[in-house]
Design goal:
4-stranded mixed sheet; single chain; 10 strands; 1 helix
């Protein structure tokens, strides 16, 4: 008993469909979320120890989700810099700390500086000038 040419083609259609579904050819592509590169450029006081670690602890998960360890910046002269990818249109807030002793950033009046905030509008640089560092403390909240 032989199958006609039409019957053979009819049997190949379900087989080909099953192969395409298994390969993901029919699935929609994954949704993409637009991001931007945000560079933190932090100018520190001249008496900041050379081996200090400046940490950004912020609201975005890339910045620690408001908990340690946060995002570490690299020293470049009197500046600390670092770049991170954040979602476009995200509202972000953050604090700066010296990690080794958990000294908070101070404002000009000597109080702990208020949180910095910005909206991610595209690739951007967030400049901050630290007036002074406070006394060692317990630091920001930690995960766990």
């Amino acid at each position: 008993m032989t199958l006609s040419h039409a019957a053979k083609c009819f049997l190949l259609v379900p087989l080909a469909s099953a192969m395409l579904v298994g390969c993901g050819a029919i699935e929609p592509p994954p949704q993409e979320y637009p991001h931007a590169t945000v560079t933190f450029d932090v100018t520190v006081p001249s008496d900041t120890p050379a081996n200090a670690i400046v940490t950004v602890v912020g609201s975005d998960p890339s910045l620690g989700g408001d908990a340690t360890p946060g995002f570490h910046l690299r020293r470049q002269g009197e500046h600390y810099m670092g770049s991170v990818r954040l979602a476009l249109e995200a509202d972000v807030s953050f604090e700066l700390w010296l990690e080794d002793s958990w000294c908070p950033e101070l404002s000009a009046d000597g109080a702990q500086a208020p949180r910095h905030s910005f909206r991610v509008e595209g690739d951007m640089t967030v400049p901050v000038t630290v007036t002074d560092w406070g006394a060692p403390s317990l630091g920001p909240p930690s995960k766990g």
